[in-house]
Amino acid sequence: MDRVRNARHFAPRLQRWLSGSGELTGARAAPQNKADGSQLELFAQDYFAALEPACAPPSAPQALFKAPPPPRVALPVPPIVPGAPPLRRIQLGAHAVDYVLRRSARRSIGFMIDDDGLRVTAPRRLNLTEIDNAIRAKQRWIVTKLEERGERRALRQKKPAVQWVDGAELPYLGGAITLRLQPAARSHCRYDEQARELQVGVVAGLQEWQLRERVRLWLQGQAKALFAERMAHFAPLLNVSYRSLTLSSAGTRWGSCTVGGSIRLNWRLIHFPLSLVDYVVAHELAHLREMNHSAQFWATVAAVYPDYDGAKAALRKLSQELPVIFPD
Ligand SMILES: [Zn+2]
How far is the CA of 242 from the centre of ligand 1 (A)? Predict the structure, then answer.
């Protein structure tokens, strides 16, 4: 590969990515299983070639005479995962940004931003200083994307959450169902499909969190049954078979799929119309044919779900509008 030529071509390419939607896809993008996310993909070799000549410092993070603006919004922070290595922290302007660092055998350094904050995947040969310099070089893009995520989250949390009282409405398969609380000697949870009512027996002393938990379990049960049914519909159409289906509840990551055929679907999809459930199911199953987001992958999706672009947009919009129903 011609490094000099690459360095020269690097800047305009980067410019295009930065001015775009924040998502980069292409033949050289690494495989990833996200239905939604912002990713900046840089090839380490190109990146360091672009930094030459070495007489200039690798980055100039902040002008000394200008105080960084105060943070506008709390940035999303990666969740603490038991057993995972501790998060790393870097100061980017006014923000102390915590990020997950993953090492991989690949030659590229990748930045992924979603509701779980910043994730950096770096080749093993890069040391921590080089990684931090690479992050600083992209700090405007990173902070802007993190702020967008933070603002969206703040907006979601401002919406009135469900009041856990008789008559409350819960989003269900694109419509609403009504919560009916019925005093009862023994607690129960029944769905009246005709009335579109979820009837919950409330025993004396039932706490709100217990009621929430009951409804959550019911929704998760519905989700599991529906997802299994839709998987059984789409798998033969795509001529694939999967090994396992489990429910997840992570942020706005709607689905994932491993090479081994383990598919995870977010149970909160049960709030959305069936057509969007179908899109995520078709998307994840299509990964069993193409473990990437190449043109071939999207052609595979389109064969069983033609309007995937419409579904993607609708999913993004609805997930931003979804009120916080289960705050924990
Ligand atoms: Zn995918």
Answer: 15
